[in-house]
Design a protein that fits this description.
This protein is mainly α. α1 packs antiparallel against α2. It folds into two domains: about 60 residues, no CATH class; about 35 residues, no CATH class. It has five helices and no strands. It starts with a helix and ends with a helix.
């Protein structure tokens, strides 16, 4: 007699890992795109693996980390505040 409960438990564990990973990645992507972590977390909780492609194709806000630093952050990349200050300085020099 085989133990069906143990087989179901292993599959449930892997599905839980996939669910948690999609929540983490969706939260990270939505935060980098300038929408905060909560929308990505909610998308990951409700839509599981569909959250990742949704947030990859969702447009980023103009001053988000995604636009300023790129999709994958570099170590010495300017922060969003530094990029805004530099852009503001360029605009101010262009006016005067």
């Amino acid at each position: 007699m085989t133990t069906v409960i143990a087989l179901l438990g292993a599959k449930a564990l892997w599905l839980t890992y996939i669910w948690l990973a999609s929540c983490i990645i969706g939260s990270w992507l939505s935060d980098r795109k300038g929408y905060g972590e909560k929308p990505g977390l909610a998308t990951g909780l409700l839509l599981t693996a569909l959250a990742i492609p949704i947030w990859l194709f969702w447009p980023a806000r103009p001053d988000s980390r995604w636009k300023v630093q790129g999709p994958i952050p570099r170590r010495n990349a300017p922060t969003v505040a530094e990029a805004r200050a530099a852009r503001h300085e360029q605009e101010r020099k262009g006016e005067g």
